[in-house]
Write a structure and sequence with these properties.
single chain; 338 residues; four-stranded mixed sheet; 4 strands; globular; sulfotransferase activity; signal-anchor; transmembrane helix; transmembrane
Length: 338
């Protein structure tokens, strides 16, 4: 286990260097200095990000610096809560997808366009096997063998990649993401594995006088029951949350791993294409764009929370509070916090 302290110390060092760089000087904020190793004779994504070829900083670069600052400041202000774990284990790195060829590490967060980003990572790592991300079936994008994750490397290899590769993730308004997860996993009849695994457990614990059919099938979980399950202390003592409703800070560990880019679901297309531009593939690879009619919206989320008591709303906000603060999402206007 002591080997994993090395990873944690390295990530801490990177974060500390970033914090000590000061807010005013963007170029001084490069936590790796100016001599990042070049790959194949070209500039690495980290060089493009921290030492851009153009002298004047773009509005995009400034925006992403502000997002990095927000994460750093939140980690510092909530250190007792955000850094309970001093040591990262292999299991903590299973969401970090590695692209060797373009020196990228992507931490995927379910319900934040992760299917399309996994498709893109398959194109980037496929060495010509794929060209159009949308030709890759969604279920194939989620086959773990199709992408390499950071936990599959040795300790020195992990340390090297954490230091040298550009690390990024995408986030979403926490409660909108939660409602999206609920709608997808508990209201779609085809998701029988989730109904059996979680639905039956939720109904057994949260529904009085449940029918035998509901206890057996678990396919009609109400949103109020789902919320009650999430805030139940027994739930979190029993096992970690499923990745679809786990907090981003628990999935990607942004207080231990220094992320160079924080993309947002609300600006998904431009943020994604900025990553691809930095990786040097923006001229021929773009983030897939299509209107998803079933997408969970803010208005939809507001409706789902109307039947949640203020007590439960307050408890649920506490569960996801760090995600709200870290990624600069304000308290939703529809919440009735106690």
């Amino acid at each position: 286990m002591q080997h994993w302290v090395l990873i944690c110390k390295l990530c801490d060092k990177m974060s500390i260097l970033d914090r000590e760089g000061g807010i005013g000087k963007f170029m001084r904020r490069n936590p790796f200095g100016v001599d990042i190793c070049c790959r194949k004779g070209s500039r690495s994504p980290l060089q493009e990000l921290y030492n851009p070829t153009q002298l004047e900083l773009s509005n995009t670069a400034v925006l992403h610096q502000m997002r990095r600052d927000q994460v750093t400041d939140t980690c510092r202000a909530n250190s007792a809560m955000s850094r309970k774990r001093r040591v990262l284990t292999p299991n903590d790195l299973k969401h970090l997808v590695v692209d060797e060829d373009h020196e990228l590490i992507y931490c995927y967060v379910p319900k934040v366009a992760c299917t399309n980003w996994k498709r893109l990572m398959m194109v980037l790592t496929g060495r010509g096997k794929y060209s159009d991300p949308m030709e890759i079936p969604a279920n194939e994008a989620h086959v773990s063998a199709n992408l390499k994750t950071l936990n599959q490397y040795s300790i020195p290899e992990i340390n090297h990649r954490l230091k040298s590769y550009m690390k990024f993730l995408f986030v979403r308004e926490p409660f909108e993401r939660l409602v999206s997860a609920y709608r997808n996993k508990f209201t779609q009849k085809y998701n029988t594995s989730f109904h059996k695994r979680y639905g039956t457990k939720i109904i057994k614990r949260q529904r009085k006088n449940a029918t035998q059919e509901a206890l057996r099938k678990g396919d009609d979980v109400k949103f109020e029951e789902f919320v009650a399950y999430l805030i139940d202390p027994h739930t979190q003592r029993e096992e970690p949350f499923n990745e679809h409703w786990q907090t981003v800070y628990s999935l990607c560990h942004p207080c231990h791993i220094h992320y160079d880019l924080v993309g947002k679901y609300e600006t998904l297309e431009e943020d994604s294409n900025y990553v691809l531009q930095l990786a040097g593939v923006g001229s021929y690879l773009k983030f897939p764009t299509y209107a998803k009619s079933t997408r969970t919206t803010d208005e939809m989320t507001t409706e789902f929370f109307q039947n949640i008591s203020s007590e439960h709303q307050t408890q649920l906000y506490e569960v996801y509070k760090l995600d709200f603060l870290m990624f600069n999402y304000s308290v939703p206007s529809y919440l009735k916090l106690e």
